[in-house]
Amino acid sequence: MKVQVNQLIEGCILSEDVFSLTNSPIVSQKTVLSNKTLEILNAFLIKEVAVEPTLVTGGKFTPAWVEDEVKSIKEEHIVVQHSFTERYLKAVQGYKKLFQGWQSGMAIDMPAVRALIVPIIEGAIENPRELFTLHHYSTVEDYLYHHAISVAAMSAVLASVLNFSKGDYIQIGIAGAMCNCGMAKISTKIMNKKGPLTKVEFEEIKKHPIYSYILLKDIKLLKDEVKKAIYKHHERIDGSGYPNGVKSEYLSPYERIISVADVYYAMTSERNYRSKQSPFKVLESILQDQFGKFDMKVVQTLTKIMTNFSLGTKVRLSNNKIGEIVFIEQKSPTRPMVRLDESGEITQLVNQRGLFIEEIL
Length: 361
What we know:
Elements: E1 2-4, H1 35-43, E2 48-50, H2 67-75, H3 84-103, H4 110-126, H5 143-161, H6 166-178, H7 188-191, H8 199-205, H9 208-216, H10 224-232, H11 253-268, H12 279-289, H13 296-308, E3 314-317, E4 322-327, E5 337-340, E6 346-348, E7 357-360
Antiparallel strand pairs: 1-2, 3-4, 3-7, 4-5, 5-6
Helix pairs in contact: 3-4, 3-5, 4-5, 4-6, 5-6, 5-11, 6-10, 6-11, 9-10, 10-11
């Protein structure tokens, strides 16, 4: 919906790029507005922008001038289709409430978890492009809850493309959502720590798959494969993972899928002790730096999904130049050709190893 800039608040999410007198947007679509971005809009004398009806907190954003209009729409019985973003943010807040209950000792209500997760999975299956924008909404404070919903969606879409049945990909999605539920048993002092963890603190964090399994082991609504996948989602096929350091022969397709979704989302999101990286840079790291740790069939599936939606995508390079992806070579999917907005020049990232895509806009 279109909103006057003077009615915007922090936490609003842009649904369209904002341009001034430049070819490149001054603020990009999917940006979560802060005081700094509001100042930029005012500095460029922008009068009106398009925003999502939902704030990044999951709450509804209703400017005063549309209240009467909304009332009129309701009276006319017009059904408004909620955007995937809106449903996602509400699911994040719903998961947050459930997680806080687990922290206080409440049992896990699996029907309530399913009610949150299944609609998100179905929405992601219908429009998988949305998967590659979700990291924009994550905050350091609410990372764990965004992680749960995003990994659920990513895991389910990967499983669907890998030809798992609907019943199986929903189970895999639920496993993705619950793989970190054991963090509810970790000290909040450790979870909320600013800066790197000590060795002792990290060893405690590494116990969360065990805690997750303990919380879920007696829930009959979950298949055994799901419980095992949750327990093993930090294992790696080369044996370098945890908690048991098992190798590929002990890892089912469930945990192979979830481990890729988990590490992808973790690396593309802002953390207390690590800055977020662009999806392309993360994918390059998984393909090269972490080669041998993940199932290549799953990684190649993620690559295929991502590059299918990348042609025409606006990106910011590591030298801060803005451009558009115009060609993707199958041998180097993370290093496409980019046409620069300012000059029209084609930059071949495959020939410039020091240059990479910093952010998808």
